[in-house]
Amino acid sequence: MDVLASLLAGLLNALRAQVGSDICPGGWAWATSALGVAIGLLPTVGTIGVAVWRRRIGSRYGVAEATVLAATGVLTAGVLPLLAFTAVGQVFSAAAAGGSVPGLTSGAVRNLNTEVCFVGPQSTYLGSGSVGAAFDPADPVRFGTAVLLLGLVPVFAALFVAAQARLALRRGPRWPAKFFWLPTLALTVFTARTPAGATEHLWVGFTAGAFLGIVLTAMAGAPSREVVRRSLTPPEPPRRPRPAGPRADAPQRAGAAAVPNLADRLAERFAARDPEPPVEVPRQRTDAASTPAPGSTAVSAPGSSSAPGSTSGPGLAATPGPVPLGARAPSANAPSAPPPSTQSAVVPPSARPPVYPPTLVAGAMPTRGPGRGARFHLIRRLGSGGFGRVWLAHDHRLGQTVALKSAHAPDAETEQRIQREAAALSAVRHPNCVRIHDLVHAGSDPGLVGLEGLVIVMEHVEGMSLGQLVHERGPLDDVSAARVWAGIAGALDAAHQRGVLHRDVKPGNVIVDPGGLAHLIDFGIARRTGDVTLTMAGFVLGTPDYLAPEVAAGSAASPASDAWQLAATISYALTGFPPRGGHADALSGLRAAAVGAKLTHLPRRTAHLPLLKAALKTDPARRPDLLTAHRALEEWLRRNGTPFDGPVAAGLSRR
Predict the structure, then answer these.
(1) Does the domain at residues 465-533+540-639 carry the CATH identifier 1.10.510.10?
(2) Average confidence (pLDDT) over 383-388
(3) Which of 553, 546, 583 has its CA nearest to residue 465?
(4) Which fold has domain 291-327+354-462?
């Protein structure tokens, strides 16, 4: 401490020489304030260092990164300023006591003892008393000065340091900012024994330096969005090595044994493993509110409601094989041409994965009969809703894991709904929309024993819903939100081109797979133009918190209402709340939607706020269509230098 005091004494003497000694309250007092400016820039050194470091590491703070951030803040905003305050106080205390002052010549000490204006000798003015003794109500003038210079001024200094820290932590978690402003505020306690006069001048200079540091820290810049994205994107799982040996589709040499194809190899693998407990499927009606099975992923349970008052209709024909979409019973003379596939114009070619052609007509993909073995192997139940259940199964014919959707009770009305959903999904071909592979009758395959009626065979998408992702990891950043919005907008646009409305777009119906790609699922309440509706008078299918105002008020659903629901879903992804806020029950949520309640929970700090406000307008005619929104988002991603088809990540921001 003596060495530091000697160095600072010499620095104060040099600064005093640059200031007029006859200017009240004296050259030494002004030199102390100037030194306070330099001390106030110490936290700036730390924040600039943090800003430069984050341009390389991004926004993921592990244990090592968090330790470095905390140590930097405590050192530059707390420890070093405290040492400087204490050393300066030691210099002036020694001068006020009449002793020798390390670092000052005898002439400098004599100058320090000169009287200037009304404050008396500068050594006494700067070195007598203490900070704690200055807060004495018996001396109103001294007490008021102490409250102003030793109470309020340090608070402003801490606020300026906090602003520097938040600038250094832009585009990332800002909790390390407290390691900067808290140590600065703690200086008011740890300097209680330093001379009051010198400490007051140091705080004035410190506050000015901290304010200047805001500008300097802002000039350091923030990490690029690409660096932030890379730092927060989880590492890809290691790829499994391809098994050695000849390919299944390689031509066979004469006399060589035939190599089994992929489907046969998977079937043999399932047959060779230890037997599993049987899957029990009750034949009677089950509770509509069944809880999803543990480990449920990908495909959510079908729609949350079914039409009341439905009666049991005639059963389906027992002819094995897939069921045509246009009829409730299979036909031997049904055409074998698959439905035409379309590709939405709003999806870039690079984002289009290979598409499996649907096989939805009789004869296109014959199912194995009981004598030749089962086509399906049920693995576990994924979920259940008011309409039906979803099972995870292995399809030996396709050689892959699939999701099977079946109704609780196969009456005429539910069969009609299954056929409508299958037709809706098969008509949409888009990489962000779950694909359907087949539609079969449960009685046509021994592997579906226990199931009844029509069964939809669809793509199984592993991952978690957007709602679960935001709930567990936090809101999305603007880049991830733009990718989800643009991708699902393309899927909906492809559906609308085929005359299909989704009508229940919400965070629970958007699945983000392990690769970060968003998928739109659950067309359980989808409807084609001209289809009979399953809504009763006064009853609306859909989720009230994400329901468009005109639909909640009783108007027919439209592409504009799907666009509203998608914008509401993106608003949730950016904030963690529905745009109208949460409601205690469905009735209050439906009432708020019907009257076009104020959007109280829109994200405040996002580049997408103007587009969100436009897409969430009450009047459907004033909303931008999905194609316009897609193009705007794609252009925004291009301007920011981020790829359109990158992964989606959460926990990047808190709004």
Answers:
(1) yes
(2) 62
(3) 546
(4) Phosphorylase Kinase; domain 1 (3.30.200)
